[in-house]
Amino acid sequence: MALWAGRFSKEVDETVNAFNSSIAFDARMYEQDIRGSIAHATMLGDCGVIEQAESAAIVEGLRGILTDIQEGTLVFDPNAEDIHMFVEAELTKRLGSTGKRLHTARSRNDQVALDIRLYLRDEIAEIRALVLELAHTLCNMAQEHTETIMPGYTHLQRAQPITFAHHLLAYAQMLARDLERLDDTAKRMNECPLGSGALAGTTYPINRQQTAQLLGFDRPVANSLDGVSDRDFCVELACALSLLMTHLSRFSEEIILWCSWEFKFIELDDAYATGSSIMPQKKNPDVTELIRGKTGRVVGDLMTLLSMLKGLPLAYNKDMQEDKEAIFDAIDNVKLCVKTFTPMLATMRVLKDNMRKAAAKGFINATDCADYLVKKGMPFRDAYKITGTLVAKCIEQELTLETLPLEQYREMTDLFTEDVYNAISLDTCVKERSSEGGPSPKAVAIQLAQLRERLAQDAANE
């Protein structure tokens, strides 16, 4: 019989029981559920709500259940309604009436709200460690490629010369912001809902500050209605994870392009690519394609949470059971993707010569040609028009700005002299882009040092 039976005159229909049950997915919170119950039982004993001997017996019984689950000698009952009922039923089975005292001054509403906060707090710590490792991997790769010239793109058209290090650090900056968002989410969720009861607190003389402290929370949730009905933290985490996945997806898209024969900027290690069942020449970037696909799934989890919450009155409603599968799915997919993406990135081969050859085409030094004239006193718009005309000449004659004869430059203006060829060389173009945040080796070195310092602070906050 269900632990909440008493009001009902007959058993719930089996189909409804199966529909109502959540143990298939919330069993993963068993450790957090038991930790919360230990803190609650400890507080009940200290406050005199139950006898100290009963409190001690409950704590010992809960620790025994935790050990048995971890060692595999106690398996979850698939017929249990949820992990909370399973643990309480097992405790009652072991301790008899003493076990029944655990739920004094507590509702499943505040118990569920507590467990999900504890679980997500633990998962955030694990995810941020994975993201931090990926960010360090990007920094290490950037260190090796501060002078590896490649084309930068806008509209997927070759635009201006940059370095591979500069490109990698753009993604590292995204990850640094992802770490900040995870930390912000963890900070805001670090309030303890235990003691909120079903919605209106309790008449027992409990100590919410004690349970909050025992469980490592900053403080209790200030309002009991909010304590049981708030799932902002789930939405906020799902949003942070969706943005993290969006960053991985954008990077994955570029890797997919880069390893194609049309680009051939990189080659994936055989361990992180797959072949074709019919075309023996194929080497497919399945890892990055799956990450790109799973990003939609994580964004969908965010939409599920927002849609689930948008019409709910206070306080708890059964709709809120849907929070777990959505946020668990987002967490699982993010962890899987980052764990796979990091070694794939670290083992891929960078084809420097191909990057430089691509940078030599597409007139990506055209802006530098215009800047050359501006530095000699010409207004930028005039310089822009002249350079555009020169590019058209080059296309017509199948030349580049580097191979266009000086006489044709001087037909446009006498400001052009022999030094134009040095000014528009790829090495000069990159080296001269030394403004803060730019692609020059000097500017990248500063970015890299600042980012490593920022990541070191993030690591210290773990």
Describe this structure in words.
- With 462 residues, this protein is mostly helical.
- Helices cover 62% and strands 5% of the residues.
- A two-stranded antiparallel ribbon has the order 1-2. It has a two-stranded parallel ribbon with strand order 3-4.
- The model has no long low-confidence stretch (mean pLDDT 94).
From the structure above, extract its key features.
462 residues; mainly alpha; two-stranded antiparallel sheet; 19 helices; elongated
Low-confidence stretches: none
Tell me about the biggest sheet? 2 strands, antiparallel
Distance between the termini: 44 Å
Spatial strand arrangement across the major sheet: 1-2
Task: Quickly give the structural class.
Answer: mainly alpha
Total beta strands = 6
Helix content: 55-70%
Give the overall silhouette.
Answer: elongated
* SSE string, helices as H and strands as E: HHHHHHEEHEHEHHEHHEHHHHHHH
Q: Average pLDDT across residues?
A: 94
Q: What Rg is obtained from the alpha carbons, in whole angstroms?
A: 30 Å
Number of helices: 19
Beta strand %: under 5%
